[in-house]
Each structure stands twice: as structure tokens, then as C-alpha cells.
Amino acid sequence: MTRVLITGAAGFLGSNLARRCVQEGFETHILARETSSKWRINDILPHLVEHKADLSEYNHLVRIFQEVKPEIIMHFAAYGAYPTVQKDADKMINTNFIGVVNLARAADTVDYYCFINTGSSSEYGVKSSPMSEADILEPTSLYGVTKAASTLFLQSVAKTTGKPIVTVRPFSAYGYYEEPIRLVPSAIWHCLKGCDMELTSGARAMDFIFVEDIVEAYVRLIDIPGISGQIVNLGTGRLYTVRQVVEKIKDITHSGIDLLWGKLPMRDHIPDVWAADTTKMRELLKWVPDHDVDQGLRKTVDWMEQNIGFYERLKNRD
User: Fold this and answer.
1) DSSP 113
2) Is 11 helix (H, G, I), strand (E, B) or coil?
């Protein structure tokens, strides 16, 4: 049975990947902090082996790696992706960079055959054309800086040691178990509950990629040889504005709410266009995402209709 170790399994992308690993029959181990909220994975916890650990605890990480001896490592743990609520600079640096250094050093004590690091499209900064893996990194936020630093560190390790480490940079991911403050779940919640929604102008265009496609890309990467040190964008290469996405959600849910465009200010340091150059992804994986934005949004709406209780409890908690 293939042994997988996942960090950040309680988060949006990590929880979806953990579910896929369970479905694949992998022996799935997760690293979780004592304070981690596990609402996304409570139902699959009996199928996971949980290890209490913080990425700052290098010696403890080594003991876990020696115990588990993972063959596959999937790193999702991060802090700062939600800038309105995750603002602690020290925590950002310690989690996104120092934590990755500790993880890589601990992983070096075992013989693994795949280490997939989750980077971020925020590493690129502002570009005037679709972002390519060969672009100069010009992050405009501390989050982007720390993610870029960890990518460069792991790329250096891969190139100097030959370790099978690859970094993926997901673009605007959406889907099951996404954080409720994000655009797609927030818009779906407002539509399902019949509450008018305040928004920005809606002009910003992004490369939205459905979570099922992101998970599929991770699984495909596991068995591709010769990719040590590579960086791969995960996107669709297609752009939709915030206004287009929210209008689609309103249509899918047959909602009559008012969308109050221009009521919220635009965030700083985010370009008007955020698109992935997907050439490398298509050539390396011999694959393109299976879902267009209409299909992904319909699946997400159907899922939220059946699981709205998760979001009700989270909103009541807040």
C-alpha cells in the first residue's frame, strides 16, 4: 500500500487531495497542528493516520518521517492566502518558508519518490501576459515573497541532490470545502439564502480552476519521471471576470438577489488580469482540465446545497 504524507490536510486543497488518496486506497498520513479545525475531514478521519505536529518542530518532524517512511509527500500547509484575516508576518515567514525548510530536511531522512510542493500564482506578481513558469518572480505581498522563497529553496535542493521535488502553482481554485470568505462560496451562500451581496466592480479577470481538476493534476504528477526541480502552473488558460462568475452562480441557483456592484473597494496589489500559461502543464501531463467554469460552478452549487450546514456553522462561529 502506497504511503502518503499530507501537510495542510485540514485546508481547502489538502482536504480534497486527502479524500482522493483515501479513494485510491493509499495509506494516508496527515500532519496537523493541535489547533487545526477539521470540519473538512471529520468524516474521513477514521481512514487517516493523524500525526500532531507543527512545521516549526524539526526534530519532531524527523521522528514522524522515520516512523511513517512516506513514499509520497504532498505539501499544502500555508498561512497568508486569505489576506483579510491572515496578517501575522512572523507566522507567514515561519510557516511558508522556515516550515518548508524543516519539512525538506526531515524528508531527506527517508527514501521518498515524489514530493509535490504547493506554490502560488502570487509568486509571479503583476504581469502583462499569461504567467509562465520561466517568468521572473516579482511578488507584491509578503505571502507571495514567502511562497517564492520556499519554491526557490526546494528547486535548489532538487537540482543539487536530484531529489524528486516538484512545485505546482495553482491559480484561482474553487470548489468543495473552500473557505467561506472566498468569492465563489460566498456568492453561492448569498444566492441560496436570498441575501443581497455587496461586491467590487467585478472587472477583475482570473483563471478559475475547479478543485477536482487540481486534485487530478496532483495524482498525475506522482508517476511522471524526470520532473525533479520542475515548476508547473495549474490553470485553465481561460479568463472570467468576477462579474461573469457571480452572474453565472446567480443563474445556476435561479436566485433573485440584488448584486450590489461597486459597493466594495478593490484590493491593492492584484492585477486586473490573472492568467496562467498552461503550455507546460498540457505537455507534461498530456492532459487539460476536465471542467469548464460552468461545469465546475454547477458541481460546486450542487455540493453546497447539500452541505450548506458547514457554512452556517462557520458563520455562526464567526
Assistant:
1) S
2) coil
- Among 97-111, 123-137, 230-244, 303-317, the least confident range: 303-317
Gyration radius of the chain's alpha carbons: 19
C-alpha cell at 203: 472587472
Rama region for 76: left / alpha / beta (φ>0; ψ in -120 to 50; rest):
alpha
Residues 6+ apart with CB under 8 A from 147: 78, 96, 119, 120, 122, 123, 139
Give the global pTM: 0.95
Residue labelled with grid coordinates 524527523: 62
Range(s) for CATH 3.40.50.720 in the chain? 3-171+209-234
Q: How many CA atoms lie within 13 A of 27 on its CB side?
A: 7
Is the predicted pLDDT of residue 318 greater than 70, yes or no? Answer: no
Task: Give 219-248 pLDDT, tens digit per residue.
Answer: 999 989 889 999 999 999 999 999 999 999
Whether the CB-CB separation of 49 and 1 falls below 8 Å is answered with no
The number of beta carbons lying within 10 Å of the beta carbon of residue 244 is 14
How many Cβ atoms are within 10 Å of 156's Cβ, its own excluded? 13
In CATH terms, the fold of domain 174-207+237-274+292-317 is: UDP-galactose 4-epimerase; domain 1 (3.90.25)
Q: What percent of the chain has pLDDT over 90?
A: 86
The third-level CATH classification (topology) of the domain covering 3-171+209-234 is Rossmann fold (3.40.50)
